[in-house]
Every structure is written in structure tokens, then in C-alpha cells.
Amino acid sequence: MGRIHLLLFLVLIIGGLNWLTLGATGSWDVVGKLFGGQNTLPARAIYILVGTAAIFELTTHRWRCKDCAALRRIEGSRYGGMQPNGTAY
């Protein structure tokens, strides 16, 4: 699972930088420029991949991240040593 996390994290970085350039310039879309426009199949596939990666990371990050593990242990005391979904930590 660590390699998937790293890959999706890199995809999110690429997507974030693309949004940064689009927001800062108002019109310069790096992915669109590299792949022939926003409506081309490769560019749309990358946009979909970035969005999917964001949803996956949003829903699973907290349970896999070492930095978040300490927070889970602290919150675990609220649930009697159990995760909110009923499984043990």
C-alpha cells in the first residue's frame, strides 16, 4: 500500500502545481499545454486520475499516515481503544 500512497501523492502534487499555475496566470494549464488542450483524451485522463487520487487520499490517508497514527492513538482513548468503526487499533 505504501507504493500506491506514494504514487497518488505524486499525482496530487502534479495536480496541485497545475492548479497553482492556472490560478496564478488565469489561463496557463500545464497539463493542457503538454497534452494538446484540456479536452484531449490524455489531458482528461490525467484530470480524472488527479481527482481519483484526491478522493482516495482524502478517504484513506489518516489510517495509513505515520504522522496521523499518533492522533489516532489519542482519539482511541475516546472510543475505549477502538476505532470509530469498531475495530481495534
Can you offer a commentary on this structure?
- The protein is mainly α.
- Helix content is 72%, strand content 0%.
- The protein has helices spanning 2-25, 30-34, 41-64, 66-76.
- It is elongated.
- The chain has one domain (8-79).
Strand content: under 5%
Overall strand count: 0
Q: How many DSSP H or I helices?
A: 4
- Rg (C-alpha, Å): 18 Å
Q: Output mean pLDDT.
A: 75
Overall geometric form: elongated
- The helix-strand sequence is HHHH
Biggest β-sheet: count, sense, barrel? none
The termini sit apart by 18 Å
Element layout with pairings:
Blueprint: H1 2-25, H2 30-34, H3 41-64, H4 66-76
Helix pairs in contact: 1-3, 3-4
Structural descriptors:
89 residues, mainly alpha, 4 helices, 72% helix
Compact description:
The chain has 89 residues and is an all-alpha fold. It has helices at residues 2-25, 30-34, 41-64, 66-76.
